[in-house]
Amino acid sequence: MPLIGLLAISGVFMTVKLGFFQFKYPLYIFQQTLGSVFKKPKGEGTVTPLQALTSALSSTIGAANIVGVPAAIMFGGPGAVFWMWVIAVIGMAIKFSESVLAVHYREENEEGEFVGGPMYYMTKGLNMKWLGVCFSFALMIELIPSIMVQGNSVAATVSQTFKIDELYTGIAMAVVTGLVVFGGIKRIGRVTEIFVPFMALIYVGGAFAVLMLNLDQVPAVISLIFSHAFQPMSAVGGFAGAAVAETIRWGFARGLYSNEAGLGTAPIAHAAAQTDHSVRQGFWSIIGIVIDTLIICSATAFVILSTGVWKQEGALDDPSALTTIAFEESFGAFGSLLVTVSLIFFVLSTIIVVVFYGSKQAEFLFNLKAAQGIKVVYLAAIILGSVGAAKTIWSFLDLALAAILLPNIIAVLLLSNKVKELKDEFFQSEKYYLKDVNKKKIS
Questions:
Q1: Domain with 271 in it: what CATH number?
Q2: How far apart are CA 34 and CA 45, in angstroms?
């Protein structure tokens, strides 16, 4: 709760400080991001802005989108979906700020690649290298149990569905991950650019098909989401009921946990992007929240609520299975398979990118050789996790996340004037926003 409160207050503070820009310029932000994917990127960088976005999305689109959303609904009620949307829009200001700072304070490494992230803006922007070292070390270490947990979830799912031994799944995941991550950010960008849109479209397409089968339920679902955002939800079927405070808490937790606003991970991917101004790349991080939370998490929520699986007896016993049950009831064995395959691909893509994030911490703390060495440690963690070695340290994950999140939020708030200065520079300059708008008027 304290972390959720801190993130929510920070999000509101940055939204006000930046003049509610995410509400003022949604069309312009869309035009400068997804609306410009076929245009040649301006400025310098290692990967295209789209590749930076898909790399960041690989990390945020994961098990939380499929199994976390039903948990939020079961413990917070349908109203939690409304609060998930609210925190997503507020969180945009934090994620935008992180990415703007990451690009502004980035550096070129020995291999000519652009590198950046919280550890660089703490060192160069705040002149607090010790804080950057604390963040970097905490993230590098935290990713070991995190990767183990992710590896375990894939291995268990594959074992359950396809009856393949967990060890073999772990080795296969480690090999695939190694082939991608040892190629650096350029190879990761090329893989995620194809991989992420493909896997997201398949899952969202399946969810849309379920929704079409239950089209008559959509008005009732929307009514449930909005009405129970502000009033307690009494027990119904398998749902035990929830107070408004619980509804808000679960909605906020799901939104923040899913899109990683404030965690400082996505800026590491955005820092490598080719751009002419840090604010322009910041817009791409906003689109990341739109895709991850407002589209994919919402798709899961509508599937759970429209099919009514959340009200079935025993639903509270295993909320993480509800998405699979909803798809299975709609499409039979194929539906169950679609969710399983989506989960496997979502988690595998997460592992690939977090290994990259971890290697960038080792590079910052030590050197490029250490970055390659930690990749080997992470690949071993995938295999160990797949056979259940992480179960004793799962409980420490939240504590480790706090060690990453707190230094990053402190840095973003301390550098909020710099973010505002860069944002004002972009929107008031004839080189950027005014030039784009005038060009549109002429055409």
A1: 1.20.1740.10
A2: 18
